[in-house]
Amino acid sequence: MFDRLKEDIRSVFHRDPAARNTFEVLTNYPGLHALLLHRLAHWLWNLGLKWLARTISTISRWLTGIEIHPGATIGRRFFIDHGMGVVIGETTVIGDDVTLYQGVTLGGTSWNKGKRHPTLGNGVVVGAGAKILGPFEVGDGAKVGSNSVVTKAVPEGATVVGIPGRVIVKSVSEDDARRREMEERMGFDAYGVTDEMPDPVARAVRSLLDHMHAVDERIENMCKALHKLDSEYRNGELPPLDDKDFDCVRDDVGDSESGRA
Ligand SMILES: CC(C)(COP(=O)(O)OP(=O)(O)OC[C@H]1O[C@@H](n2cnc3c(N)ncnc32)[C@H](O)[C@@H]1OP(=O)(O)O)[C@@H](O)C(=O)NCCC(=O)NCCS
């Protein structure tokens, strides 16, 4: 139990740069108070002590301004920042490492019993004031923009903003597109690495690709100039790069990855 408590406290430090020390977090974070009281209420709810569970949930709401139904299932390292005005419905399911900001509603749109609230995957972030309404899934790692109203399933890793919530597609710059194409051609895949993650190997490979591209361009221009001087120049083509040439590199990478596993 204390391990879980420590984990919940650590998650505050990871997600709020303003958190300074454990005592401050334990005493001043209503999101943490609401979570701890919910863990107790949920345990009582599952034991069948429904009235007691609901009463603890109500007291928690008086103290924190956060209303979590004791029936809601909440994963590990859950963090509610600021908290006031958060409402989490009875049949909500929340994965691990989820973050909510103030004013979020995880609600239903019908009065039917049964599953009527959303299911949030691992690592989901829901911005201040957002409403997620209905029994659908918000995929792992998805982000919901502040004040959005989401009424349909959200794919894994997507960012949704607006009313009604729409997935935003970030435009890929020409340079990024070219890098991706080159990486694919040579079989390089920075697996699981996003632009925000500082993977030094991926960065080094990308710098090399940029450099290769710049050198290629320069050679191409020099060839054009030489071709103008002598039209016979550059009649012989360069040997094409064959996919098979990279098999040994892939084997090496595969070996080192299986060694790591
Ligand atoms: C949704 C969110 C995660 C997007 O962050 P991001 O991936 O860095 O995306 P960007 O900021 O580059 O925005 C992408 C586009 O979506 C728009 N956008 C971002 N958030 C939006 C929102 N909540 N509502 C409407 N549009 C939004 C931007 O204006 C931008 O539009 P453009 O491409 O036309 O310029 C972020 O804006 C957000 O709302 N985070 C919640 C933060 C929060 O609630 N903090 C509370 C602290 S107390």
TrEMBL record:
Catalyzed chemical reaction(s): L-serine + acetyl-CoA = O-acetyl-L-serine + CoA
Protein name: Serine acetyltransferase
UniProt GO cellular component terms: cytoplasm
Predominant subcellular localization, coarse grouping: cytoplasm
Enzyme nomenclature, EC number: 2.3.1.30
Region span, Disordered: 233-261
Organism: Marinobacter zhejiangensis
Intracellular or extracellular location(s): Cytoplasm
Molecular function, one GO term: serine O-acetyltransferase activity
